[in-house]
Amino acid sequence: MTLAGSGPGPRARDEARCALYVHVPFCAVSCPYCHFSKTGLSRVAVERYLGALEREIALRAPLASGQAFSSVFFGGGTPSALGSWAFDRMWGALKGAFTIAPGAEITLEVNPESMGPRLLDTWAKAGVNRLSFGVQSFVPSELATLGRMHDEHRAAEAFALARAHGFRRLSLDLMFGYPGHTAVHWTRTLDAALALAPEHISAYGFIPETGTPTGDAIERGEAHMVPPEVEASFHAEADARFTAAGLALYETSNWSLPDAESRHNLTYWLRRDHLALGPSAHGLWKGVRRANAYALGEWAGSLERGEDPATLERDTPASRADETVMLALRLGSGLVLADLPQAHRNELLVRYGAAFEAAEAQGRLVRTSGGWCIPREHCFVADDTLAWLAIRARPIDPQECAA
User: Fold this and answer.
1) Residue 274 confidence (pLDDT)
2) How far apart are CA 270 and CA 252, in angstroms?
3) Tell me, what's the pLDDT at 399?
């Protein structure tokens, strides 16, 4: 059994054209496992953030002149922690500087405890049409361990409230494989998640991060990872349960109803242009990667001094091919050569053509009508195949690419 020919669907692929990401770094409470750029919530900090964001918008807007964004994503942090006044100011600055395509997917990440009727009205009025709920678990003891502020009932209440305010594209974020996670609790979480009938679910395997309380506890031997085979079984159970409910696996950690794939994230996986704003934000625009300063103070300080907060890295044929393979093979449909301009396709085949043939012979990859994909039974350990391919990648000879 393979993922060959499965999602994302053609409409989603076509609509994932060009993305705009905005990082909102505020959290009421810092979760002990999270390594994302974040800071405490205060009026002073929000005012500084908004002023710096407006400066960065003015700095980046010329890059996107004549370009209409097919998706906008407010991530964090906790974007839903911003009050209506702050969101309206942020949205007004974005709309004033950038062109948002009609019908664009506009997603906002939400923590269940930080939303209410007024915010929902604000978001709906602005055109937000997709909410992604950070839930992680539906088990009280796990929510406490993970530092979540909501209880096991609040996610359902928030979902119902969002539906009542007209939102029809809702997603759940879940996590598995963290210290103390059990099969019984995972089944309980899957039951509760499916009972909400979301259009989309993301389920991510826990990754310990140095510098976070949980990650540091694991390094000290005070907490322990779930065994890899158990973590793989959690992913397999999620896949079976979600598939039975009509949610198709279209990326290693993402399932959706038909046509409910995340257009924004698909832009990343297809390695299409995305402009990114805010502290720690990373973007790819016309062959140039920009990585913003990580912390709010450093990012804002640069902009306040009239400096660019980003470091730049330009594509090379090798880096372009490597990233394309790494990202595309996470998709259910795998690498589809037709997604690439001819010149980039030639580069990729020079660098990876022989490795693909060897991987196919060993059952690590499956040939599809459009390229290659990872067999479904190996999708959770896709990184193993990617590492195997990377070792066998060839240097790129420009003359071969031109042939």
Assistant:
1) 98
2) 14
3) 65
Question: Is the same domain home to 213 and 321?
Answer: no
Kindly state the tokens that stand for 150: 């909501």
* Token pair recorded at residue 195: 């009972």
HSE at residue 54, side-chain half, CA atoms within 13 A, is 14
CA dist 225 and 178 (Å) reads: 6
Statement to judge: residues 190 and 333 lie in one domain: no
At 5 the pLDDT is 41
Is residue 242 domain-shared with residue 144, that is, in the same domain? yes
Number of domains observed in the structure of the chain? 2
Contacts (Cβ under 8 Å, ≥6 apart) of 392: 352, 354, 355, 358
Among 269, 285, 302, identify where a domain stops.
269
CA distances in angstroms from 330 to 6, 20, 270, 309, 374, listed in the order given: 12, 22, 10, 31, 8
Structural domain of residue 86, as residue ranges?
10-269
Give CA–CA dist 350/325, Å, rounded.
13
How far is residue 251 CA from its own chain's centroid? 11
pLDDT of 51 reads: 98
Structure tokens, 273? 């242009």
| Residue 299 within any structural domain of the chain | no
pLDDT, residue 398, reads: 67
Query: In angstroms, what is the C-alpha Rg of the chain?
Result: 21
Is 17 part of a structural domain of the chain? yes
- pLDDT tens digits along 204-218: 998 888 888 788 888
Q: What predicted TM-score, i.e. pTM, was given to this entire model?
A: 0.93
Amino acid at 328: A
Q: Is the dihedral of CA 112, 276, 29, 177 positive or negative?
A: positive
For residue 287, which phi and psi values (nearest 5 degrees)?
85, 10
Q: What is the pLDDT of residues 350-375, one digit of tens each?
A: 999 999 999 999 999 999 999 999 99
Cα first-last separation, the chain: 36
Tokens of 323: 């990233």
Q: d(Cα 67, Cα 100) in Å, to the nearest integer? A: 9
CA-closest candidate to residue 73, choices 5, 133, 131, 7: 131
For the record, the structure tokens of 257 come out as: 């109803």
Domain boundary residue, one of 269, 302, 331: 269
How high is the pLDDT of residue 347?
94
Cβ-in-10-Å burial (0-12, 13-18, 19+) of 286 comes to exposed
For residue 394, what is the DSSP state? P
Is 16 part of any domain?
Answer: yes
Q: Which residues of the chain have pLDDT under 50?
A: 1-5
Whichever domain contains 129, its CATH number is 3.20.20.70
